[in-house]
Amino acid sequence: MGSHVVWTVLKKELMDLFRDRKAWMGTLLVPLLVIPFVFFLLGTSYSNVEKEAREYIPLAVQGSSSLITSLQKNPAVQILEPANPEQALQAGHLRAILTIPAGFDEEIAAGKTAKLSVAYDSTNQKSVYARTLIEQTVEAYSKDVVAKRLNQAGLSEQTIQPIVSTFQNAASEERKSGGMLAGIIPLMLVVSLASAGMAAANDLVAGEKERGTLESLLTAPIAAQHILTAKLLAVMTMSSMGAVASLISVTLAMRLGPMGTEGDHFTLAFFSPVTLLVLIVTILLLAALFAGLELVLSTVAKSFKEGQTYMSAVLFLAMVPSYMLMPVSPVDIPTHYYVMPVFNGVALSKEVFYGKVDPMHALLGIGSLLIYVVFTIFLASRIFRREGAGLKH
Amino acid sequence: MIEVKDVSKRFKEIAAVQHVSFRVEAGEVYGLLGENGAGKTTTMRMMATVLTPTEGDIEISGFSVRQQPLEVRRRIGILFGGDVGLYSRLTARENIAYFGRLYGLEQARLEERIHSLSRMLEMDDFIDRRVGAFSRGMKQKVAIARTLVHDPDVILLDEPTTGLDVTAATIFRRMVRKLQEEGKTILFSSHNMGEINKLCKRVALMHKGKLRFAGGLDTLREQFGTEDLDDIFMAVVEGSEG
């Protein structure tokens, strides 16, 4: 009888939610359309800036040196002579100003250190790119000068370069792809899990209370915990759908969009049966945790509007751990984060996208998440079954 | 049958209902009368087991609201006025069927009940349309059908005609009489003496959480020497305060 009631209420809740345009638009359309659109927009904007920075590099030179000839070997470099170079740099018409003191080449020829001054604008990405180009050119030019000096002194280059290092990236293609995703996806995943269920949770208790439907439901010969179980499952469904939609859209945006992995081969091979299982369990437990919390707040709220205000607390709870762990590599996450609420879910999903889940971390993370879920559902059940909790006034 | 036995309900410092007792016989339409805030809805909510009495008990068809709340719920149908408590994104049929399933009705029986209620309440034209766009009267019909879907013995009507126009209220009263003919026990709460007069022979009159009178309307008329029920109501209220 209990499972029949849960199924009846759940079916009705899902039908009701899917007929609510706002609910499914928030849950599915926003992640599926808005996220790729934002990625595309950001990517296009970044790649345009980079392209323009590479294709046209206007510089001003005060003084002269053969170094400038080396710079001009790059066809994008244009030497301009504006009336007021400083003003032109501020206005973005120039990317950098090179000031070469008198006797610059002579100083170098005499075996001394010549001083070159470069003015650039650190707030302008194109100017920063010009500075990098100048640095690389000066380094290459200096290397030539050093080689000539050593040659004159009868020494080889090896004299000043006793060690030559070669670096090989030990990260597999899978890990490189996953490493990129481990930065952004846990953030998107956890925030989606928290946000996608909010409208549903608020509607299913605070909204029903306001419309008087919950009171009618509570007069039916069914146990309150069965109603709550169905509502919890409905909110979890919406949360999980939102999270999966986010996962799909971010993965596609990374793979196909302009911010995608140019040159690198993007692959989802970092998913193994074990990591996939850990990810699914983590998503379900986080969905249950957020759904439980959202139902607690929705039950406590006296109106739908009040419920909306309370829901922002859940979003805050999801965002803080996600942003805190975003720049941290999965191998550097301290063990105690695997037992802290929400942090554990973020940390575990980072490991999944990194392609290697530590069994101890999985045990700690999933075990502690389970305890938080049980506690939250127990709390939700207590509050929901409290006398008068389902009444409007 | 409904038996309210010395029932009180407190919400922290507020005594919403104080030592109220009355009895509604099987097959009777009984009026629960009082102005807004008199304690009628709280009393109804205790009967529906949504609230638990602080003191006393209520028996519905022999079952205690304290001891056997699920048995009580199986035997009652409650209809609230104002917000009729329907799911606006579901059709009328889906609303009624949802509650029917929660009351454990088998599919065939459920379909039969929906069909007969739809005919009785003249809902055939709109039963498969979503409730959100319905008029107040149409919504009230759906809410009545939802209340009656499991064929309850006892029907609690809490200010059921609130917001209804004259025609809809008249149709509603006809339906109450029809239910009485079928042998249903009906408790009808209202703040409108005239409405109670049209349906009930006996009433309980509440004021500020206390029962001021329980008995026949004829007794009240004789006692106060007038046919005007509004005057009688005021006299009872003022007498209890004086």
Keywords:
heterodimer, A: 393 residues, mainly alpha, abc type-2 transporter like fold, 2 domains, four-stranded mixed beta sheet, 4 strands, elongated, B: 242 residues, alpha/beta, Rossmann fold, six-stranded mixed beta sheet, 9 helices, 26% strand, globular, transmembrane helix (chain A), ABC transporter permease (chain A)
SSE blueprint:
The complex is a heterodimer of chains A (393) and B (242).
Chain A: H1 2-18, H2 21-55, E1 57-62, H3 66-72, E2 77-80, H4 85-91, E3 96-99, H5 104-109, E4 117-120, H6 125-152, H7 173-196, H8 198-211, H9 213-218, H10 224-256, H11 273-300, H12 304-325, H13 343-354, H14 359-385
Parallel strand pairs in A: 1-2, 1-3
Antiparallel strand pairs in A: 3-4
Helix pairs in contact in A: 1-10, 2-6, 2-10, 7-10, 7-11, 7-12, 7-13, 8-10, 8-11, 8-12, 10-11, 11-12, 11-13, 11-14, 13-14
Chain B: E1 2-11, E2 14-24, E3 29-33, H1 40-47, E4 55-60, E5 63-64, H2 69-75, E6 76-80, H3 92-102, H4 107-120, H5 136-148, E7 154-158, H6 166-181, E8 185-190, H7 193-199, E9 202-207, E10 210-216, H8 217-224, H9 229-241
Parallel strand pairs in B: 3-8, 3-9, 6-7, 7-8
Antiparallel strand pairs in B: 1-2, 1-4, 4-5, 9-10
Helix pairs in contact in B: 3-4, 3-5
Q: How would you sum up this structure, described in words?
A:
By secondary structure, chain A is mainly alpha-helical. Helix content of chain A is 68%, strand content 5%. Chain A folds into two domains: 2-45 and 173-385, no CATH class; 56-156, abc type-2 transporter like domain (abc type-2 transporter like fold, 3-Layer(aba) Sandwich), CATH 3.40.1710. Chain A contains 14 helices and four strands. Chain A has a four-stranded mixed beta sheet, with helices on both faces. In chain A, helix 3 (66-72) links the parallel strand 1 (57-62) and strand 2. Chain A is elongated and about 100 Å long. The model of chain A has no long low-confidence stretch (mean pLDDT 88). Chain B has one domain (2-241): Rossmann fold (3-Layer(aba) Sandwich), CATH 3.40.50. Helix content of chain B is 40%, strand content 26%. Chain B has helices spanning 40-47, 69-75, 92-102, 107-120, 136-148, 166-181, 193-199, 217-224, 229-241, and strands at residues 2-11, 14-24, 29-33, 55-60, 63-64, 76-80, 154-158, 185-190, 202-207, 210-216. The mean pLDDT of chain B is 91. The A-B interface holds A 1, 5, 8-9, 12, 15-16, 19-20, 211-213, 215-222, 387-388, 390-392 and B 45, 48-52, 70-71, 73-74, 76, 78, 80, 82-90, 94, 98-99, 101-104, 130, 146. Chain A: It is a multi-pass membrane protein. Chain A: This is ABC transporter permease. Chain A: Residues 24-381 form the ABC-2 type transporter transmembrane domain. Chain A: It is found in: Membrane.
